[in-house]
Every structure is written in C-alpha cells, then in structure tokens.
Amino acid sequence: MTVKKYKRIFGIVMDSVGTGEAPDAAKFGDVGSDTLGHVGEAYQGKLQIPNLQKLGISNLRQTAIEGVDKVTSPIGYYGKMQEISAGKDSMDGHWEMMGLPVEKPLNTFPNGFPEEILKKLADFSGRKIIGNRPESGTKIIAELGEQQMKTGDLIVYTSGDSVLQIAAHEDVIPLEELYKICEYARTLVNGPKYTVGRIIARPYVGQDKDHFTRTANRHDFTLEPTGTTDLDDLQKAGVHTVGIGKINDIFSGHGIDEGYHNESNMDGMDHVDHVMAEDFTGFCFTNLVDFDAMYGHRRNPIGFGQALMDFDKRLGTVLKNLKDDDLLLITADHGNDPGFKGTDHTRELVPLLAYSPSMQHAGSLGIRKTFADFGATVLDNFNVAGNGVGDSFLADLK
Prior knowledge:
Layout: E1 8-14, H1 35-42, H2 50-55, E2 77-81, H3 90-97, H4 115-125, E3 129-134, H5 137-151, E4 154-158, E5 163-169, H6 175-188, E6 198-205, E7 213-214, E8 219-222, H7 230-236, E9 240-244, H8 247-250, E10 258-260, H9 265-276, E11 282-288, H10 290-296, H11 301-321, E12 326-331, E13 350-355, E14 363-368, H12 372-381
Parallel strand pairs: 1-11, 1-12, 2-14, 3-4, 5-6, 9-10, 9-11
Antiparallel strand pairs: 2-13, 4-5, 6-7, 6-8, 12-13
Helix pairs in contact: 1-11, 4-6, 7-12, 9-11, 10-11
Keywords: Cytoplasm, Isomerase, Manganese, Metal-binding
Family: Belongs to the phosphopentomutase family.
Binding site for Mn(2+) 2: 292, 297, 345
C-alpha cells in the first residue's frame, strides 16, 4: 500500500482547547473538566464554528458540543490524544508532541518560592519582591500593580504549573530590564535542586487597577529541552521548520529555522497565511495562546467561545488555501476549562483533526495513546527517523 506523503504540514495548536477529562484526571483534581463542552453550554447552543464542525470537532466526542452537531460526512479525519507527560503545562504538551514526554514532575510552589531564590532575584535586580504566591495573573496585578508602579518592586507569582512569573509595568521597568531579570531567574531553576518549566515575563500597562492590561510583550524563558526533539531531527535532515507564536520560546529556539512572534491569535493566523503563501517543503508549527492566556485562566467561557469563533473564520481561509500536497493538523496542548473550578490548566484529552484537499476518505483516528503520535506522523511524512516515541497515523490518512 502506497502511503500519501505531503510537501508541507501545517500544525496548529489551539492552546488549552481540551475536549473532556483525561483518564488520569483524578490525579490532577480535574475530574469533570471539559473545555469545549462547557464553552458550548455557556453559549446555549449558539456557538458557531462551522469549519471545525465539518472537520469533525464534535464527532470525536461521545456527546456533541452544544450547538455544534456531529456531521454525517466530515471532510477529514478526527480523533483525540492522551497526554503521558507528568504535568499539564504548555511545555509538557508541546515537548511530548515533538517526541520528548516530560517523565519527571517539575517543581511547583503551592506555598510560594523559597527565600533563597527570592533573595538572589532581589540582589540581582536591586528590587524588592512582592506577591510570591499562586495566583491569577490579572488578579495579582490588580491587587499589587499600583504598589509596583510606586515602588518599582517585582511582582513574583506562580500557578498550579511549574512556572515562575514576574510582572512589572512597562513604564516602570523597561522590557529589556524585565527580560534580563527573567533570564537570570532562568539560571536559578535549571536543577538539580529546583527545576522549573517556564519563567514568564508578564509586562502590563494602564494607570490604575481598573485599567491594567497585560501586553503582548510577554516572553517565556523555557527550560532547555532535555533531549532531542522531532524538530531537531527534522532540521538535521534538512526539512524546513517554522515556529509561530510560543513555539520558539517553548523549544528555546532549538530545531527552528524560521520564527514569528504573535501579538494575538489573529496575528498568529496572519503569520500562518504568510507562510502558506511561501514555496517551501517542511513543517510549520503554530501556537495560538489567546484561548489560554486571555480566557481559560480567567474562567471566561464567553470570551473563550468568541475566540473559537474568530479562529474558525480564519480557519476557513486556511482550508481554502491548502494545496493538494498540504496536510493540516489541528490539536491542543492541554485543557483550561473556563467552566471549571480554580484558574489552572485542566488535564484533558485534546482534539486531533487532520485534513488535506487530496484526501479521498474520512474517519476516526481513535484515541491516540500519546501526544507524540503527532510528531511521529510529521517525521514519517518526511522520511526522518526519530527516537521511536509515538506511532505515526500517516498511513491512516487516505
């Protein structure tokens, strides 16, 4: 049997768009989480995502998203993926997709960061530390932002994930200085005593707590990949790799030939359109973070649903511009259920949608045992050997 190969693969990660609790959700306190299900319920049947619908976004679920019926004849293949990594952060999800599951849990700080880390940060920056607890970013900035503006202190906080976040007003601490402080913080938690997945610079603007807004100048300083990823293997084999959005940060630039920073989901889709217009052979990997950063963590299902509908409209352009030798893969890196308790990511299965105009059939890809099947499929397409993690579903796409 001849397996169809594609000249270009476009992978789009809808950051945090989970589709129901994972089998191990109880370990994370996430039983009952369902990002897409709860967004649909919030819209009371009025969620309109026709392009995702015809790709099979509801067909992959036991129960359809409210207002988004299952379709009799999806135009492509649909399924779900299960995470095997120890955590439920963006880094874990993306690394696993690229063949590097995070097997050892990274450090989290439910009681705040230890004094030894804070003292080093304060000494390096010459600034005092305030906050130091797990908290919603918008909430802690509303609470401490005015103080930070007056004193020049650093707002340090975390979440349920392995992250150290530093917030500062752009007019008080210039971006260059904030990034420099975050780069130093990165050196403090690379192990062995403390190993943190991401240091996140969280700049904001506004003149008072009622008007503070976090800006697109966020920057993630991620733990260097602890091994070779599928991106590295693709690059070494001469396959052109493009990273859009957080991809470059998540992989610390490794294995990426061409990178684009996103100001928003729509800016990210502008970059996708731009790359699609180029003539190249390779893999374009995109992360769209607004679902997560702007709506999931803030537990805003209405905003989340609007972001899905906005993305769906832009997806229509992508579908129209795909060539016969292009393959589109859409998935997510974890859940962040805006209808669930707390403000942290949720351990969920994630959608898997695959489409090319040249496909002659459609159907289910089932539940993939690991996110790594995504990257294994990309490697298989370009005849690149990886580390053996994950099973390709390329032969199932007919």
